[in-house]
């Protein structure tokens, strides 16, 4: 007992010395101190001595985790050793989008942005340069780097929250990272779209006439020319949401319309999504379908199995954008002027595709927020 008390007393005294590391004090320097051999004397024979590690070594092993990478006073390159930096840069410079998608926080658009950035600017040479990639800032970059150095295998029971109002159903986390979408609606002789940002602001909103639609025998080359002309002026976005109409198979009179819609839809999917998604399962599809009936239910436009016109709702959205402090969606002044007299009751269906494209974009963001609540 006397030896034990003396032993503990020496521990306390050692921890009180200025500039030294006690058992419960963090060492001032990140490197481990040298091993200093100490001995405990056997209380039975008082002759045998058992070597043990010094307290500085024990203390350093307990607190050997690196200092947090503070954005205010430390660069990303200063947070990691040269070997760690080589490992991180090797992954970021050589991994495919599907391989990057397996890293924490890199699912969805971030992995694609990394590949696009290094293709345009060359390989990453420093960790600090990674924050130039869109959607990657200091804090998220640290999480990515640590995930590369310490990969964690996901269990089979990890629950993925799907956005079930889209087809195919995709992980909702992919959609939440999108900066903007383009909502596309096909009509009998035109294609309309609404380009809407995540802050619920209309960036672009227009339609293009397609003179070869529903003409003659649905000549594929003529359809391709019309669709390609639309794609030339279509803005770029993280996701393209294409309206999928609900046409009853029992109504044979609508077969020509259904064939027309499916033809245009297939061309849009093929031209906007050139990647082989079967080989890149960790990359989200860029083109998605949204059911027309789902948008109708969201805005209470359904009358039985049919959907009423959304012109009245669009006029109200435009009015609210001018009068309310926080409207459901914001319109720039030039678009308000351009469409101020459109969507009137006497227009007899004119501008219906424009209305539907806008309502689909609004429903996309509002349903996405609702599913995450």
From TrEMBL:
<dbReference type="Pfam" id="PF12836">
    <property type="entry name" value="HHH_3"/>
</dbReference>
<keyword id="KW-0804">Transcription</keyword>
<dbReference type="GO" id="GO:0003746">
    <property type="term" value="F:translation elongation factor activity"/>
</dbReference>
<dbReference type="InterPro" id="IPR039150">
    <property type="entry name" value="TEFM"/>
</dbReference>
<dbReference type="InterPro" id="IPR036397">
    <property type="entry name" value="RNaseH_sf"/>
</dbReference>
<comment type="function">
    <text>Transcription elongation factor which increases mitochondrial RNA polymerase processivity. Regulates transcription of the mitochondrial genome, including genes important for the oxidative phosphorylation machinery.</text>
</comment>
<protein>
    <recommendedName>
        <fullName>Transcription elongation factor, mitochondrial</fullName>
    </recommendedName>
</protein>
<keyword id="KW-0805">Transcription regulation</keyword>
<comment type="similarity">
    <text>Belongs to the TEFM family.</text>
</comment>
<keyword id="KW-0496">Mitochondrion</keyword>
<dbReference type="InterPro" id="IPR010994">
    <property type="entry name" value="RuvA_2-like"/>
</dbReference>
<dbReference type="GO" id="GO:0042645">
    <property type="term" value="C:mitochondrial nucleoid"/>
</dbReference>
<dbReference type="GO" id="GO:0030337">
    <property type="term" value="F:DNA polymerase processivity factor activity"/>
</dbReference>
<keyword id="KW-0809">Transit peptide</keyword>
<dbReference type="GO" id="GO:0006392">
    <property type="term" value="P:transcription elongation by mitochondrial RNA polymerase"/>
</dbReference>
<keyword id="KW-0251">Elongation factor</keyword>
<keyword id="KW-0648">Protein biosynthesis</keyword>
<keyword id="KW-1135">Mitochondrion nucleoid</keyword>
<dbReference type="GO" id="GO:0003676">
    <property type="term" value="F:nucleic acid binding"/>
</dbReference>
């Amino acid at each position: 007992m006397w030896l034990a008390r003396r032993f503990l007393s020496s521990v306390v005294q050692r921890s009180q010395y200025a500039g030294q590391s006690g058992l419960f004090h963090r060492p001032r320097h990140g490197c481990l101190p040298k091993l200093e051999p100490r001995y405990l004397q056997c209380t039975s024979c008082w002759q045998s001595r058992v070597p043990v590690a010094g307290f500085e070594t024990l203390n350093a092993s307990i607190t050997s985790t690196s200092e947090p990478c503070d954005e205010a006073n430390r660069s990303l390159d200063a947070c990691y050793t040269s070997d760690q930096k080589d490992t991180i840069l090797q992954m970021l410079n050589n991994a495919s989008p599907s391989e990057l998608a397996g890293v924490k926080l890199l699912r969805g658009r971030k992995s694609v942005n990394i590949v696009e950035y290094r293709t345009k600017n060359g390989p990453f040479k420093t960790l600090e340069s990674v924050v130039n990639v869109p959607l990657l800032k200091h804090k998220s970059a640290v999480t990515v780097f640590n995930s590369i150095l310490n990969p964690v295998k996901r269990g089979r029971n990890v629950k993925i929250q799907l956005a079930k109002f889209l087809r195919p159903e995709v992980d909702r986390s992919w959609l939440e990272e999108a900066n903007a979408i383009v909502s596309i609606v096909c009509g009998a002789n035109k294609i309309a779209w609404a380009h809407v940002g995540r802050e619920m602001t209309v960036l672009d909103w227009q339609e293009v006439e397609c003179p070869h639609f529903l003409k003659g025998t649905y000549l594929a080359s003529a359809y391709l020319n019309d669709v390609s002309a639309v794609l030339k002026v279509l803005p770029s976005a993280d996701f393209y949401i294409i309206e999928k109409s609900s046409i009853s198979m029992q109504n044979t009179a609508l077969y020509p319309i259904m064939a027309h819609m499916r033809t245009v839809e297939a061309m849009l999917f093929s031209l906007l999504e050139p990647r082989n998604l079967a080989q890149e399962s960790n990359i989200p599809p860029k083109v998605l379908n949204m059911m027309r009936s789902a948008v109708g239910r969201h805005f209470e436009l359904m009358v039985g199995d049919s959907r009423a016109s959304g012109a009245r709702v669009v006029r109200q959205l435009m009015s609210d954008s001018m009068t309310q402090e926080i409207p459901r969606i914001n319109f720039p002044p030039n678009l308000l002027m351009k469409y101020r007299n459109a969507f009137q009751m006497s227009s007899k269906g004119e501008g219906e595709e424009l209305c539907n494209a806008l309502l689909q974009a609004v429903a996309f963001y509002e349903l996405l927020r609702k599913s995450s609540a």
